[in-house]
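Translate sequence into C-alpha cells.
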Amino acid sequence: MNLIVTVQEAVTAFAPWMEPTTAELDAIEAEMPVIDREVDLLDVWIITMDRVPSEVDMQRLRRAHKRVLAARVDAANLAGTGGAA
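Result follows.
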C-alpha cells in the first residue's frame, strides 16, 4: 500500500531562506509608487475594453499614462541619488 503524505514539511522547511531580504523589501517599497500608478493605468484600460473608448476615456488613458511616466521618473531620480528623499 502506498502512503500519501503531505509535503508541507519539505516546503516550509526552507521558508526562512526564501524570505525576501531587507534590501529586497526596500527595493519593493521604493517601487510601490510606480506599481500603484501602473495598476491605475490598468484599471483605466480594463474600463475601456468592452466599449469603443470615448474622448473622455482617451483623456483618462493619457492622464494615467502620464502619471506612470512621472512615477518612473521620480523613481529613477531617487535611485540616482541613492534613494534618499
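Note: DSSP finds four helices and no strands in the chain.
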